[in-house]
């Protein structure tokens, strides 16, 4: 009847119906969209890359550039993970789910990561959720400040700290993002974004008494993992970190297989497949032709050079030479994420620790202790609930500068801190000792300065308080 009413058009449709039905199993029932793209490398076929060798090299160079910008933070965290979890010859080897504790404040020889603070004792642990949840027990403490700063493998931070949970501590269950179980009574759930997590614990320490309390706190924090877990891995042998594009791509491939990626990044990560990332087998550099391999190396080197050059422009300029660093909030801004982690791992959110960085004086000239002496006058000290510090680093090494006083910062806790009658604080930053005042020793060469404000008050977070310019002192000798 329908065919008689609507004629040839319907007859043609009736002929096509069996063909349409035969393809229905390739998609969801009732879905007339095209089937999903193949989920494996082989499914894409040879048309994934241009056949023209020059075009192919151009595309691979571009993809390698993008993959380097995207994953550099993950690679740098993986270096730390491999050293602590897989390299049994490492000084701080622990395996998964165990803390390595630094019992003293960081100094110039601190090697775990760059730009460390010297306000707190550090402890580090890598957590593996591949076999299920891991419990973290935090004791009550009289410490002035603490945080278990938890990072996913890409460097996105969160905190179990006195700011977020108070000084009474508690029990917390770190769970994979797809976990649907029930926690034990009295245990709060922390849902992780990746399977492998880095915990960077900071415990306030300044005086000998502070150090004793901080060490006791380190020992009292407990990690309770599923039985038998600790060193296992299920994504092939974790490759040792190595310089160059090949070492980088091996590590990135492992990280993505073990951890996945952020929601919304599926298309971006799929774009890396021509490099051999997330293929049917782990990354194999021998699958790249010599021309392709050269193109990949160039793309990697170009990206790394760009990210390295951007280190000195971290954050938003304040107009006085300081940069307000928007740490820990990345989203899909991979350049910011990579640059901050190249400058130094462990960047926390501003609500926990607001910081400012300056490589220049108030006139925009590079800070250099070989040619100049400087003054930082804090007319109003940083407004904080916990404490603040002004720390100096060698601009060549990003390490603390060794000096005869073993003084790497000036803070509200510095012994003998001189405060003016108007409550302002003058900090003299120079290579040779001044006649008096608060001296922050500088190298005879380039350096930079970081202000850290732990527990920043609202006037700091909303920009009412900003650090004044570092001024060059006129030579009156």
Automatic annotation (TrEMBL):
It comes from Sphingobium xenophagum. This is DUF1254 domain-containing protein. The keyword Signal applies. Gene3D superfamilies: Domain of unknown function DUF1214, C-terminal domain, Domain of unknown function DUF1254. The keyword Acetylation does not apply. Residues 353-457 form the DUF1214 domain. It comes from the Bacteria. Transmembrane segments: none annotated. It holds the Pfam family DUF1254. Residues 96-223 form the DUF1254 domain. Keywords: Signal. Residues 1-29 form the signal peptide.
